[in-house]
Design brief:
about 475 residues; alpha/beta; Aspartate Aminotransferase, domain 1; 7-stranded mixed sheet; globular; binds ligand PGU; aminotransferase; PyrdxlP-dep_Trfase
Length: about 475
């Protein structure tokens, strides 16, 4: 009897196991099992070369430079690849570092990979004192943490627009402006707006090369991306004739993306006279200009000067689209403070545009983060703090400009017979050295100086301490 009971219990378990097994097996096949592994996204900054697709380049640059740099034991090694590292060792708390050349930040070592951000002359991240002050005020005001409206912190978008278009801009009053999730969010919103409301072809033309993320941003909004000629690698300068030809041969009413200043990754900008010509061609061809202004003030040290192209186009009567980032010029990288605006015909049109921007934003992210925009708005709306900030932006731009000069001087001082004038004529965070891939490889191999194969260096990674070694490395390889 007992043995029968035991037997039958065992049998029951066996039956149960037999029933559960297929269920478990079925459960092992997840509903997401068909989701394919995507390539790593490692926040590329800048260039794509002619021969490599972006995804491949992203992987190779991100992986190779950072890893190789980390593994290099040369105490003189320099990383000028400027890849945004998402390494958990990156210090998120940055002790205030008086600028320039503040006290050494113990959290960062020379082996910290270069990031796509400004560094002071000690190679350390820099939080602007005006930002610290604005942040203190925001905190002292004990503001609540409730949602902002769909277009963000109320004081922010119009103040951002004034910075870009100018206080006395003829466009003020007919600008639909909204806060965005930094410059990337602004571009994505603009892309979506174009997809929905641009009556012509669903296509945008971007320069060759351009910031690598541009293509992905526009393609994700289902816009076709075409490239126009921009950089001439033989002259290490602007291919103005090629650009003009491409502007002229594009169908009437095409959308063109322009880097407002400090073109990323080449550092090559059109001159004011060239911008005027570009504007006139766009008028004749009824092209729609979309300006990406990620470096206002950071390029020349003067916010008005860096806004020249945007303001010239407005003076000429264009109705532009504009994305703005406060990542670089206020150092608000991770706060994601940006703005997007469209210039309309009149107040009534702006109202309609505004309503459509809200319709796009609401289901996408509902409303933007408040902290960074409060900081930016505090700076932009307080004349004293604004003046202080302008001086600090100039300090950053000047350091970059000084490093360009120093590098050129050192190369010339070493007796280099090459023309290095492009190092100082280019502007902004990045410089195209004109070194060929095999030369870059040699500089890296023999002198532990790391940068991308296309010869682009991040000038913000150069310091008074390492510029000598950099010049020597380039000179020894290039002559
Ligand atoms: N447009 C251009 C031309 C840029 O270079 C960047 C940033 C942006 C827009 C958008 O920046 P936000 O941070 O979204 O405001 N490029 C940086 C950031 C690094 C990256 O690749 O994301 C850079 O150093 O190239």
């Amino acid at each position: 009897m007992l043995s029968t009971t035991i037997k039958s219990a065992g049998a029951r378990q066996a039956v149960l196991r037999a029933r559960i097994a297929p269920l478990a097996a079925a459960r092992a096949v997840s509903i997401w099992s068909k989701v394919p592994q995507g390539p790593p996204v490692s926040s590329p900054i800048g260039a794509r070369t002619r021969s490599l697709p972006i995804a491949v380049l992203t992987r190779s640059i991100a992986g190779c430079i950072t890893e190789a740099f980390k593994a290099d034991s040369n105490p003189k090694k320099i990383n000028l690849g400027a890849l945004l590292s998402l390494s958990p060792t990156l210090p998120y708390h940055v002790p205030s570092s008086p600028h320039p050349g503040g006290p050494k930040n113990a959290q960062l070592t020379p082996s910290s990979p270069g990031v796509g951000a400004y560094r002071d002359d000690a190679g350390k991240p820099y939080v602007l004192p005006s930002v610290r002050e604005a942040e203190r005020r925001v905190i002292d005001d004990k503001m609540n943490k409730e949602y902002a409206g769909i277009t963000g912190v109320p004081e922010f978008p119009q103040a951002a627009a004034k910075l870009a278009y100018g206080n006395d801009s003829p466009a003020l009053g007919r600008i639909a402006a909204t806060q965005t999730i930094s410059g990337t969010g602004a571009l994505r919103l603009g892309a979506e707006f174009l997809q929905r409301w641009h009556a012509g072809e669903k296509k945008i033309r971007i320069p060759t090369p351009s910031w690598a993320n541009h293509k992905a941003i526009f393609q994700d909004a289902r816009l076709e991306v075409e490239q126009y000629r921009y950089y001439n690698k033989d002259t290490i300068g602007l291919d103005f004739d090629g650009m003009v030809q491409d502007l002229k041969s594009a169908p009437e009413g095409s959308v063109f993306l322009f880097h407002a200043c400090a073109h990323n990754p080449t550092g090559v900008d059109p001159t004011p006279e060239q911008w005027k010509e570009i504007s006139q061609i766009c008028l004749q061809k009824k092209h729609l200009p979309f300006f990406d202004m990620a470096y206002q003030g950071f390029a020349s040290g003067d916010s008005d000067r860096d806004a020249f192209a945007v303001r010239q186009f407005i003076r000429d009567g264009h109705k532009i689209l504009l994305s703005q980032s406060f990542a670089k010029n206020m150092g608000l990288y991770g706060e994601r403070a940006g703005a997007f605006s469209i210039v309309g015909e009149d107040a009534e049109e702006v109202k309609r545009i505004d309503s459509q921007l809200k319709i796009i934003i609401r289901p996408m992210y509902s409303n933007p983060p408040i902290h960074g925009a409060r900081i930016a708005a505090t700076i932009l709306n307080d004349p004293k703090l604004y003046t202080q900030w302008q001086a600090e932006v100039k300090g950053m731009a000047d350091r970059i400009i000084t490093m360009r000069k120093l590098l050129r001087e050192k190369l010339e001082g070493l007796g280099s017979k090459h023309d290095w004038s492009h190092i100082t004529s280019q502007i902004g965070m990045f410089a195209y050295t004109g070194l060929k891939p095999d030369e870059v490889e040699k500089v890296t191999k023999d002198y532990s100086v790391y940068f991308t194969k296309d010869g682009r260096i991040s000038v913000s990674g150069i310091t008074s301490d390492n510029v000598g070694h950099l010049a020597e490395a380039i000179y020894k390889v290039k002559g």
